[in-house]
């Protein structure tokens, strides 16, 4: 059931011969670095528009993405894996912008923020550490994830439906400020008129059926990134590119959630 509850730092150096480092220093804090996300599976028509550009290009398996990049799918789908092991999958006819990817390398707290204008989003989010934040914003909802497997469908008008398979999602309608917690096994709808309602009966069954139809864990016909990619594009190889702490020590890499 539902419970109601009331920029980027300009690059100043190239690290060695790395063409696309897994992390760069982020503005605002000497402890923050920018996370990167890697295209891990890919099918069909998917376009990427880099931050600050108006020119889109076809997505590539192994491509490294960052804050401000826009992903749009036509008759295709894409899986993106963050350095902290959070996974986002976009279905066909979807649009997503990575609005903020940050990591505090001393505390391992992170910020994964994104905006979905329309389409289908499926995600698996690791348990949040400390003040970490994982949030998806749509025209009618702000969904804060605590450590969750969830499925979201955003209509062309912005209406947002969410089903939570595991964990919880705090769902807020920005027009009214109304907020609900959607728990595992339940679903909710945020409407263009500002209302938030629990989905039941046939409406709930429909979104669960949609989730089950796409939640096999893989994208049919996918292109898979090699298991041992070059460190240039490997978001797990973070210690090579992290700024060192005082005294020359290299910060420890973020570990999976407890």
Ordered list of secondary-structure elements with their pairings:
Elements (H helix, E strand, L loop, with lengths): L1 E3 L19 E2 L6 E3 L2 E13 L7 E2 L5 E2 L4 E13 L4 E4 L4 E10 L5 E15 L8 E5 L4 E4 L3 E6 L5 E7 L1 E5 L6 E5 L3 E4 L5 E3 L2 H14 L8 E2 L34
Parallel strand pairs: 10-11
Antiparallel strand pairs: 1-16, 2-3, 3-9, 4-5, 4-6, 4-7, 4-19, 7-8, 7-9, 8-10, 9-10, 10-13, 11-12, 12-15, 13-14, 14-17, 15-16, 17-18
Notes on the structure:
- The protein is mainly β and 258 residues long.
- Helices cover 5% and strands 42% of the residues.
- The protein has a 19-stranded mixed β-sheet that branches.
- The two termini are 27 Å apart.
- The model is unreliable at 4-25 and 220-258 (pLDDT under 50).
Kindly summarize this structure in a few lines.
With 258 residues, the chain is mainly beta. It is 5% helix and 42% strand.
What features would you highlight for this structure?
19-stranded mixed sheet; disordered C terminus; mainly beta; single chain; globular; 258 residues; Jelly Rolls
CATH topology: Jelly Rolls
% residues in beta strands: 35-45%
Cα-to-Cα separation, first versus last residue: 27 Å
The string of secondary-structure elements, in order, is EEEEEEEEEEEEEEEEEEHE
- Secondary structure class reads mainly beta
Helical fraction = under 10%
Q: How much is the average pLDDT? A: 80
For the record, the CATH class is: Mainly Beta
**What is the C-alpha radius of gyration, as a whole number of Å?**
18 Å
Could you describe the largest sheet, including whether it forms a barrel? 19 strands, mixed
Number of domains: 1
Number of helices: 1
Principal-axes shape call: globular
Number of strands: 19
